[in-house]
Amino acid sequence: MLKSINPFTEELIKEYSEMSSEEIGKILSGADDAFRQWQTVDFAERAALMKEASAVLRRRKDEFAKLMTEEMGKPIAQSVAEVKKCAWVCDYYAENAEKFLADELIETDAAKSFVSYRPLGIVLAIMPWNFPFWQVFRFAAPGLMAGNAGVLKHSSNVSGCALAIEDVFREAGFPVNLFSTILLPSAKMREVIENPLVKAVTLTGSVPAGKSVAANAGAVLKKTVLELGGSDPYVILEDADIEQASGTCVTSRLINGGQSCIAAKRFVVVEAVYDKFVNLFVEKMKQVKMGDPFNDENLLGPQASPALRDILHQQVIKSIKMGAKLLLGGEVPDMKGAFYPPTVLVDVKKGMPAYDEELFGPVAAIIKAEDETGAVRIANDTIFGLGAAVFTKDVKRGERIAKEELKAGACFVNSFVKSDPRLPFGGIKKSGYGRELSVFGIREFVNIKTVYVC
Asked: Is the pTM of this model over 0.90?
C-alpha cells in the first residue's frame, strides 16, 4: 500500500493500492492509443484544451492548495501560489507551442529543406513530492502541447495530488487516457521504463534516483531529462546592499520549508561584510514563525516527513561535530509534526555535510571568503550546478560573474533563483542534464526531423 500521511498532524490521510503489472500495461496501452489520435490534432485545438486546464486550476485552486498542504506540509499561501503558477505554464504553452514547434526552413541544395518537430509518444514522468503540482505541470503542459501523451509516477506520499492532476486534464476535456497516473513504488519502475510503449523519461529527484533512471533508460536507449539536487551558492560581495541581500537570502532559504532544489543553501560572504550579513541574517531567521501550515502567519510549516527531518538533523549534528558553529536552531522541537526550526551554521568548511551535501530543509550554511575571487571559487566548489546568485550594487559586475564565472544552469543577480515558464530550467554536473520550460523544454521530447525535398 502507498500511504499519504499528513506531516503536521502525523495522521494517515489515505492509503492507495499498488497497481499490478496488468493494470499498468492497460494504462500504457490506453495512453498509446490516445497519443496516436492526439498527434494529429492541430495546435489550435490543443491550445483550447490547455487553456481550459488553466481555467480548471484557477477555479479549483483552493481545493488543490489544501490537498498539497495536507499531503506535504507546504504553507497554504505557497500552495495557492503553486497552483496559480501551474495555470500560468498552461497558458504560456497554449499561446506559444505552435510558434516554438513551427517548421524551420533551411537553405540547402534541395528544392526545399526544413526542420520539423514531431512528437515521440508516451513520456513517463517520475516526480517528487516537494512541488507536487508544479513539477508535473512543467513537464505536462509542453509535453501535451507538443503532441505527446503523459504518464505520471508521482512520489507515494502525494498520490492524492497525482490523481487530482489527472482529474484536471480530464475535466478540461483532453482525450481519455492521454494523461494518466500509475501508483507504484519507485523500486518497481524499471519494468515501466523498459516498456516499448514508453518513448522517453523525465525525472526530478535525487542524484541516486537520477542515476538509476538514467541507467535503466539508457539500457534500452531512451531519452531522459534529469533535474536533480542542488546546493545553490549565493555570493554576497562587499558592495552589496546587505539589508536587501540578507532578506532575500532568508526568503530563498525558507521557501517550501527549505525543501527546494533551487533554494539557497550555501551563503558565501566576503570578509568585509561578513559580520554585518551574519547578524542581519540571524535576526531575520529568528523572526520566522513556524507552525500550522494552514495559518497564514507561519512562514515555515513541517518538513514532508519525520524521516526526512531526521536526515536533515543528522547532517546538522555531523557538521557541528566537525567544527561548524551553531548560531540558531539545530534542535528537533518537542512538538507534534515533522518540524525543524530555522537553523544557521557558520565556520562551515569543506568536508562537512553542510558544505558538500544538499541540505533539504531550513538550514543555512554561511561561509566566509576573502574576496570576490575566493567567493566564486567556493561557490563553484560543489558537485552540483543547478542555481546560483550574486549580490552587488554594481550590476555590470554581477552580470559578468553570473554569466562567466558561476557554474550553474541558472544564475541570478540581486535576486533569489526561481523557475519561470519563459526561461529554460535545469542544471549541470550532478544536478542533471536537459532543460525544462521555455522553447528549450518543449523541444526536449520531440523528434527534431530533417525533411529534404529534391
From this structure: yes
